[in-house]
Amino acid sequence: MNTQKKTILSKSLVLVALSHAITDLSQGALPILLPFLKSAFALSYSQVGLIVLAQNVTSSVIQPVFGYITDRFPLPWLVPAGVLLSGVGMAVTGLAPSYIGLLAIVIITGLGIAAFHPQGAKMIHNTTQANSRGQSMAVFSVGGNLGQACGSVFMMTLLTLPGSINNTLYFCLPALLLAALLWLNLSALSPQTLPQETPKVKKSGATTPIPLAMVSLLLFYIFFRSSIAAGLTTYIPLYFADYLGGSHAYASYLVSGYLLSGVAGTYVGGVLGDKFGRKTIILGSMLLTLPMLLVLPHVTGYWTLPLVLTIGFVYIASFSSTTVLAQEMMPGYEALAASLTIGFSIGLGGLAVTLLGYVADHFGVPSVFTIISVIPVAAAALAFFLPGRLFKPDYLANKQGAL
């Protein structure tokens, strides 16, 4: 019986992770599409930043609304609905008649992303034992990171074919296919079927106050991290293609390499987080990223690729650890915790992109990388005060009163 249950949960984990990948295809595709949209609509860098902000606000900042609702009322159908809306939205992006129409389409796409993430992350948390939550959340996160990476490759491939930006229509195909698959398997994905320990956690969570100070500290850390991520994915292609005069293809390969290496880093970071503690990974990844970001603007030629790959691996390693840490600090509010860490704080990083757009317009694109390179100092300082013990598994530390 236990073996059969484990198999069902494993299949569910893979399916939810795959749905995460398809949902996030649009997030990886948009940065590659930006230079083409900039040219087609004669946009300024500030207007490009507003497009990124529109997607981030609707896909991320409003996620806590969906998270709060799904903690009160299980809504597993939001998973296939989110996949469908995200894919169809990106499919019609290339057909936008105007800049205002483009912003409206981006907002609709973002709503699909926002609907999917809290419910999907809650499914993962509620069907995983405490000592492997980091690894399971890493698999879920890998799905999203892989989707972003494949989205950039898929978009660049479509843009090189006859039809150019009109080929975004093909993004509806994987979305339609997976939404149908999810709908057929919805009963197996429902978070109402939980492991034996979960009702006890949720029952105790009803009387356990949320540590607002520590949660806020974690959210500020994620805001800094997402500001760097949004800045890199937005301005790497613009810097190497527009400023240095390189090819759009090579710039897209840099972004794809950055995101693909982040896929590996996400999984490794999740596994190491279960073994050495979430705080260890959260702090360590930022400290290791700092010197690499400092040298990035000074590296040219093909040496940029291995550096960007290394940054992606190390920097994104803390992704799943921050989500699981928030869920463990907020028992009974797992969807809300996921929406705050995966959505809200990351979405606020879009504000940074808008500000960086102003910097790029007035001081040049290289100034953007100077700002990005010093943000890890503040993020590492915040990480040092997060709950947990360095080099100690969190589920053990929690039992001993460390969290």
From TrEMBL:
Topological type in the membrane: Multi-pass membrane protein
Tree of life domain: Bacteria
Heme as UniProt keyword: no
Subcellular location(s) per record: Cell membrane
Ranges for domain Major facilitator superfamily (MFS) profile: 12-391
Organism: Sporomusa acidovorans (strain ATCC 49682 / DSM 3132 / Mol)
Protein name listed in UniProt: Fosmidomycin resistance protein
UniProt xrefs under InterPro entries: MFS, MFS_dom, MFS_trans_sf
Pfam families the UniProt entry points to: MFS_1
UniProt keyword terms in alphabetical order: Membrane, Transmembrane, Transmembrane helix, Transport
TM helices/strands, residue ranges: 44-66, 73-92, 98-116, 137-162, 168-189, 210-238, 250-269, 281-299, 305-326, 338-359, 365-386
SUPFAM superfamilies: MFS general substrate transporter (SSF103473)
Keyword Transcription regulation: no
